[in-house]
Amino acid sequence: MTTRLVQINMKARDDAALGRFWAQALGWGVDSEGPGVTNLEPVGFSYPDPVAVCIDIVARPEPKTVKNRVHLDLATTSPAHQAELVARLRDLGATPADVGQGEVPWTVLADPEGNEFCVLEPREVYRDTGPVAAVVVDCADPREMARFWDGAMDWTLHEVADDFASMRSARGVGPYLEFIRTPDPKTGWNRVHLDVRPYRGDDPAAEQARLRALGATDPGIDQSGIAWTVLADPEGNEFCLLAPA
Length: 245
Description:
The protein is α+β, with helices and mostly antiparallel strands.
């Protein structure tokens, strides 16, 4: 048994408006499974497929108050493409963001609800990822996060160091999942989190037990009204274990 990363869950005060922003930003399609939920995926995409990590935007009334611990890095193919993409995103409603990055070759922006993301300078490692180069998770210990997520998913571990670790789907397609050491502690629940899904035919209860044995914990929230399971990784970052598919 194992899982794979299938989507990112974002909370938003206006899921439809934020969905329109990200759909235009990535060139993806927009759908909805009901009021308060906006789904984004590439046009013609057959879910789930590691060629893309989809985005689910879910309405919540609470405003964003702290820097997100999970964000997206967007890929570019040339300096001209980077400048063009930044300008286009600004026109769509993105704003410059200062997260203490200093002088760096990438550009840090925030979407219309304040969620930070980066537009990277061209990097060879991201040449074939699609518009999303990486899903990035802030953490205190990249090595420990890599240990947990390497055991939790069937993705391939590419790099592990004290300050950085990265993984990618076993097929070598789609974005990377990266863990970056940051000094900021986690405060409150994450407005952006990972959703993982077991494969068709797997036993959800057994998969939950396996993840707990790896170090997943109960985040201590009421789960009586949902069909999936919310867990937390070893650093307390919430993630959802969805039904097998």
